[in-house]
User: Which sequence fits this backbone?
């Protein structure tokens, strides 16, 4: 913090959706003297930047966690400094594949002040263009520092003192001179908007590490999948049964040798009693054998597989977090959660550190509430102060206990139980209204239309459950056909279900 204990300068790490809305919310306050958004990629867009040529040899190590796979870079001793370019894999590319469309309806996904160009489920270039132009739309593109990676974040004053301040170590690649330029900078506050779908996760399975050595390239992760053409006539096994596994299996059916094998640990909301035509379901893999055989939990097996694609998700990585200096880790890999957080946004022990984008919930729209709450709080204009340490710790403890009891991940927030509205409501109350004279952004409402879209529009139908599904039809009892407002979408790509689902409605996010 500045000498008077106020936050005047803010660094935002990442220019994806979370960084974009954070920058907009902070700029709207017209209070902060310096806001800077640091982005390691060549443009804003985060997840939605399509990399047509992914690395062919992405380091994959069964059971390995990001601190091992994606360690911090050694910082030169005396800064500023110019070094030869970094050659360590930083997992900067995104997992977007050629056919990917969004899975959250366009009425509910974007920020409240700017719609997507069309809907309901749009190709990946739409959110990419949207995030990039969102910076320009708010005239905050000048806040962006591109090709700039934050390599170290260190607190340089005692926590909770009136003088909290952060030292950032930055690295910018200069493609003309073919060098990396390193320097330091200091800010009163830092918002982490670095995303969490960069470092792929592959579970440990008996024989898998040796199998990978014996058959190089046979084991892949959905992070590097781009098109089904590479797999023409190949025998393919997909591991996992969430959004990536669903999309990839549908994509691959057009080219691979049938059947396509899909190994499921649990049923997804799209699964009916039997697999789609062309797919054979298998249980979890039990063992990889050196003769190439892959054995499943029920002792069944497949031989002669050309490619196994792990669609087992990602783990958050914070290689820039200086745990030694800052006194603790930021992510608990055992509990799979942020450490010492309140409302998934604030930290118990660092008043001037915030995070936007972690919960697996409404994405862009929910990031807006987090960003506004942080901006209002650090400009001293919040309506409601954060509660004391005891309440914040109690919130975290209670959530951990509840998660254990219900088998739920700490940062997954449900829609159907009212949990999403409860969480957004708390952020909404902290933020309060913007000023009458225009400074500050007011958190939006989750209006009837947004709630309707979440509850009624699906990218994929749920077989046997969506009995009353209609394609571009009128929902029973509706006086106005809402899909009139969804013009432009591909009718074959989505369904209007007009009913409540059993599994949580946002469980696909
Ligand atoms: C395959 C896939 C499909 C998805 N589909 C949907 C969907 O249909 N609908 C939906 O709502 N959500 C979807 N998501 C979730 C998606 O990630 C969120 O919608 C959203 O884009 C996340 O935004 P973010 O800003 O939090 O993170 P990101 O988009 O990951 O942005 C983080 C940014 O931080 C930068 N960064 C990281 N570390 C540093 C550093 N040290 N220094 C500088 N910059 C750094 C990264 O380069 C990146 O640009 C999908 C995710 C994946 C992986
Ligand atoms: N727009 C789109 O259509 C689209 C497409 C792809 C991805 N995405 C988004 O991208 C994000 C990541 O999705 P994702 O599908 O890649 O990952 P994910 O949702 O985290 O799913 C991981 C899958 O791997 C399985 N898994 C994890 N560990 C396993 C283990 N040890 N053994 C066997 N199976 C295991 C999980 O099974 P359990 O369910 O049993 O845990 C789950 O099916 C999500 O936000 C998703 O919405 C969106």
Assistant:
């Amino acid at each position: 913090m500045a000498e008077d204990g106020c936050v005047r300068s803010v660094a935002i790490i990442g220019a994806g959706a979370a960084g974009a809305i954070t920058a907009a919310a902070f700029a709207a306050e017209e209070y902060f003297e310096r806001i800077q958004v640091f982005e390691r990629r060549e443009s804003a867009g985060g997840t939605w930047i399509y990399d047509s040529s992914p690395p062919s040899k992405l380091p994959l190590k069964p059971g390995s966690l990001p601190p091992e796979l994606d360690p911090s870079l050694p910082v030169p001793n005396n800064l500023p400094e110019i070094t030869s370019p970094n050659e360590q894999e930083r997992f900067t590319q995104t997992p977007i594949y050629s056919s990917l469309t969004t899975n959250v309806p366009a009425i509910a996904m974007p920020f409240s002040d700017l719609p997507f160009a069309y809907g309901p489920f749009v190709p990946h270039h739409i959110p990419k263009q949207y995030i990039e132009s969102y910076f320009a739309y708010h005239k905050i593109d000048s806040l962006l520092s591109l090709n700039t990676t934050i390599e170290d974040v260190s607190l340089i004053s005692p926590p909770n003192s009136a003088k909290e301040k952060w030292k950032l170590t930055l690295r910018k690649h200069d493609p003309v001179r073919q060098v990396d330029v390193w320097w330091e900078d200091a800010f009163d506050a830092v918002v982490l908007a670095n995303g969490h779908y960069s470092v792929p996760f592959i579970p440990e399975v008996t024989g898998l590490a040796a199998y990978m050595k014996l058959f190089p390239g046979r084991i892949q992760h959905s992070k590097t999948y781009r098109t089904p053409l590479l797999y023409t006539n190949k025998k393919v096994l997909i591991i996992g049964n969430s959004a990536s596994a669903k999309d990839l299996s549908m994509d691959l059916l057009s080219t691979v040798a049938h059947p396509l094998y899909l190994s499921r640990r649990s049923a997804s909301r799209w699964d009916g009693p039997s697999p789609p035509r062309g797919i054979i379901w298998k249980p979890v893999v039990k063992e990889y054998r050196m003769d190439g055989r892959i054995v499943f939990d029920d002792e069944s097996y497949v031989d002669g597989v050309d490619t196994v694609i792990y669609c087992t998700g990602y783990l958050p990585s914070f290689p820039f977090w200086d745990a030694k200096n800052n006194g603790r880790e930021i992510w608990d890999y055992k509990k799979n959660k942020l450490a010492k957080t309140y409302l998934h946004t604030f930290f118990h022990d660092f008043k001037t550190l915030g995070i936007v984008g972690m919960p697996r919930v409404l994405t862009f729209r929910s990031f807006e509430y987090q960003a506004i709450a942080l901006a209002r709080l650090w400009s001293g204009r919040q309506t409601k102060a954060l509660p004391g340490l005891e309440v914040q710790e109690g919130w975290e403890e209670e959530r951990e206990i509840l998660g254990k009891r219900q088998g739920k991940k700490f940062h997954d927030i449900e829609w159907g139980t009212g949990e999403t509205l409860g969480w957004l409501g708390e952020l909404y109350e902290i933020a309060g209204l913007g000023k009458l004279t225009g400074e500050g952004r007011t958190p939006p409402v989750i209006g009837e239309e947004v709630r309707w879209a979440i509850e009624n529009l699906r990218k994929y139908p749920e077989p046997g459950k969506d009995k009353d599904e209609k394609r571009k039809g009128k929902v029973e009892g509706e006086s106005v056909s809402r899909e009139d407002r969804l013009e432009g979408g591909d009718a074959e790509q989505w369904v209007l279900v007009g009913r409540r689902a059993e599994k949580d409605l946002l469980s696909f996010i």
About this structure: The first strand starts at residue 9 and ends at 13. The chain is about 20% helix and 20% strand.
